[in-house]
Design brief:
This is Anoctamin. The chain is mainly α and 715 residues long. It has helices at 28-37, 54-61, 104-117, 130-135, 150-187, 189-195, 219-225, 231-261, 267-271, 276-281, 300-341, 345-349, 351-384, 390-418, 447-483, 490-494, 504-509, 518-533, 541-563, 577-600, 603-613, 619-622, 652-682, 688-714; strands at 5-14, 17-25, 41-46, 79-83, 202-203, 213-214, 284-287, 294-297, 425-426, 429-430, 432-433, 436-437, 624-626, 639-641. It has 24 helices and 14 strands. α18 (518-533) packs parallel to α20 (577-600). The two termini are 31 Å apart.
């Protein structure tokens, strides 16, 4: 019995290679059988009630434009749907026309399901499915054909544009905070005091071979630090923490709307079937307690042992990342020493900045190289773990990659924010690592170095990624088409332009294989971490993220429609474990920003000094300590950054400030998390309109099924 029809076999000669194209389709009875088998949902009735929310209504009444609104062109109608059953075909909309009853994407799902589970050899050796035939190069490709691009573009903009739209208010507020920092550069009393100090503050040498230097020499660097370290960043940290919570709550609402509109609301709980690869390679079968059917099974003990092995690989790769981090720290220190020995006045003056900037660029290069290596390893490990469903497979793969990428991308900013300059010691009693003095923050503090590190890593990665997304697909497509260039024929020679008239399957075959949306999601999640976890150090981060996403949405649209083959549609109830990761990042951001403001920023020391003295006059002198007498080898005394006495012991102000810092962390964390929980409670995850639609849909499905059962009983 044939289940697939082979239409229009077409042979094309490319040099010495002959490519045969076969267009597959399924007859009506096969479509109906497998639609019921894989639980496809089909329309019962058109939804006429529009979905709206209270915020849209308020803005409309106040005549305020809704900048978060998404105007999607050519939006298809929404339907009440239920699972397809052949015996109640007449209850479904459009059942009169068999050619259009099933959507094109549903036909693709059915055909791929048949091809994915059809054996072509020994079942014991897992010789099952079209995917393995392609991977073993028996077939060169298997793909659906592109159609009109408008619907694809609409769905792409609907999902990606939500996050980008929410970046707009964050970018505006961050830019205002940055302008406030520019105003402080001109008016700040402490900055004016430092710049006009002349030779008043002679600082201790920065290394064993370095000379004394005047604090006034870093006037411009200190003022630049005020762009990122000021009172406005405290407000912005609170704003971004609440922004992240609100964004996730509204994303849940949008996700529930989309999952219902795309018939995926109950996909994972009821409909998801085992992966074809799992079905082919599972060593045994067991009876499903829910359906009663025999299903492939992989022992949990074996999966657990494989998972533990995979976790050991993750730990090993994380250790490699930390080794590279230590190597870059040593690189910065050694490069600074080399520059100081060069006797070049210009380079000596900028030694710290040169070492820091080149170290950041080197760190970015290492990050990108390790990312590619580990993503490849994670694919192999996750496939080896034998997960039953596609959702479980993707969640395991995503979690592996995110844990590594989290350490890979954020380890250097975390070091600068919370560890750099904490274990330096003081003149005469410096701490060392491998015989080299521990790295210290510049005289203007660590926050400006953290801002530099964030901009280099985040913006640098975005620029490199966008260049790759624009250039690499075009180069790959050109090379692929060059290899597939057909042999010259008399008809081609006679044509005026000399170009062959390609059929749709030939034109689609010349496109690149679509590798999914994993890289896009990972890039957005890492970006979300940069603009929330370290936002206290760089209020411009959301602004740069907004610009990047505005460009990337257009690059992705062009790439997926014009450069890639059409992928087979896959259903998912939501974004899966990505949402859990985003929640984790939002909670971590509250804690991170609390410690950044308390221990890395100068906000609390400035506040404490203003409260105890009544003004900011003398603040620079307050932050500097005098080196112990045994450190200086002449009559000259020098200063260093810290709150210590002439013997190197912490002063009373140090302990007062420490208590204030710890209290601020606790208060900040509890207040922000409490407000976040209130927002979570106030914003329901599923809009009321969607809940009503789901109940209405269940009622209509039961009514249709009951009517069919009555008819069968009568007959």
């Amino acid at each position: 019995k044939k289940t697939l029809a082979q239409l229009l076999p077409n042979k094309v000669v490319q040099g010495k290679t002959k490519t045969t194209y076969v267009l597959l389709s399924a007859p009506w009875n096969v479509l109906c059988y497998y639609a019921e088998e894989i639980s496809l949902r089909v329309p019962l009735q058109v939804v006429t009630t529009p979905i709206s929310n209270w915020s849209e209504k308020i803005l409309e009444k106040l005549h305020i434009p809704n900048i978060m609104a998404q105007d999607v062109p050519n939006l298809p109608p929404d339907y009440y749907t239920c699972q397809f059953h052949t015996n109640k075909l007449e209850r479904f909309l459009g059942h009169e026309n068999k050619d259009t009853f099933f959507k094109t994407t549903q036909r693709h799902q059915i055909l791929y399901e048949i091809l994915a589970r059809t054996p072509y050899g020994s079942l014991k050796r897992g010789e099952v499915g079209i995917g393995r035939l392609v991977s073993e190069h028996v077939l060169t490709a298997a793909f659906p054909l592109h159609e009109a691009v408008t619907s694809f573009l609409s769905l792409s903009l609907m999902s990606v544009g939500f996050y980008t739209g929410w970046l707009l208010p964050a970018a505006v507020v961050g830019f205002i905070i940055f302008l406030f920092g520019i105003w402080l550069m001109v008016t700040d009393v402490a900055a004016e005091e430092l710049c006009s100090s002349g030779n008043a503050f002679v600082m201790c040498p920065l290394c064993n071979i370095c000379s004394y230097w005047n604090l006034s020499s870093i006037c411009y660097t200190y003022k630049a630090g005020l762009l990122f370290d000021n009172g406005g960043t405290v407000f912005f940290s609170i704003f971004m923490s609440l922004w992240a919570v609100t964004f996730l709550e509204y994303w849940k609402r949008t996700s529930s709307i989309l999952s219902h509109r795309w018939d995926c609301s109950e996909f994972e709980e009821i409909e998801e079937r085992p992966r074809p690869e799992f079905t082919a390679l599972a060593p045994m079968t067991v009876r499903n307690p829910v359906t009663g059917a025999e299903e492939p099974y992989f022992p949990e003990t074996q999966r657990l042992s494989r998972t533990i092995t995979g976790n050991m690989v993750i730990i090993l790769m994380i250790a490699i990342v930390l080794i590279f981090l230590i190597a870059i720290i040593l690189y910065r220190t050694i490069l600074s020493i080399i520059i100081y020995r060069s006797q070049n006045a210009f380079f000596i003056f900028s030694a710290g900045r040169i070492a820091s900037l080149t170290g950041s660029m080197l760190n970015l290069l290492v990050i990108l190289l390790l990312s590619r290596l580990y993503t490849y390893l994670a694919q192999i490990l996750t496939r080896w773990e034998m997960h039953r469903t596609q959702t479980k497979y993707e969640n395991a793969f995503i979690l592996k990659v995110f844990i590594f990428q989290f350490v890979n991308f954020y380890s250097s900013p975390v070091y600068i924010a919370f560890f750099k300059g904490r274990f330096v010691g003081y003149p005469g009693n410096y701490n060392t690592l491998l015989g080299i003095r521990n790295e210290d923050c510049g005289a203007s503090g660590c926050l400006i170095e953290l801002a530099q590190e964030l901009l280099v890593i985040m913006v640098g990665k975005q620029v490199i990624s966008n260049i790759q997304e624009f250039v690499l697909p075009k180069l790959k497509t050109w090379w692929h088409r060059r290899k597939l260039k057909p042999a010259p024929s008399q008809e081609l020679i006679d044509e005026p332009d000399g170009q062959p008239d390609l059929s749709p399957w030939e034109a689609n075959y010349q496109l690149l294989v679509c590798e999914g949306l994993f890289d896009e999601y990972l890039e957005m999640v890492l970006q979300f971490g940069f603009i929330t976890i370290f936002v206290a150090a760089c209020p411009l981060a959301p602004f740069f993220a907004l610009i990047n996403n505005w460009v990337e949405v257009r690059l992705d649209a062009q790439k997926f429609v014009c450069e890639y083959r059409r992928p087979v549609v896959e259903r998912a109830q939501d974004i899966g474990i990505w949402l859990t990761i985003l929640k984790f990042i939002s909670y971590l951001a509250v804690i991170s920003n609390a410690f950044l403001i308390s221990f890395t920023s100068d906000f609390l020391p400035r506040l404490y000094y203003r409260y105890t003295t009544g003004s900011m006059r003398g603040y620079i002198n307050f932050t500097l300590s005098v080196a112990p007498a045994n450190f200086t080898q002449s009559y000259m005394t020098c200063r260093y950054r810290g709150l210590r006495d002439d013997k190197g012991q912490p002063t009373q102000d140090y302990y007062h400030l420490l208590a204030i810092r710890l209290s601020f962390v606790i208060i900040f964390e509890h207040v922000v998390l409490l407000i976040g929980r209130i927002i979570d409670w106030m914003v329901p995850d599923i809009p009321e309109e969607v809940e009503i639609k789901i109940k209405r849909e269940h009622y209509m499905a039961k009514e249709a099924l009951a009517e069919n059962q009555v008819r069968q009983n009568i007959l």
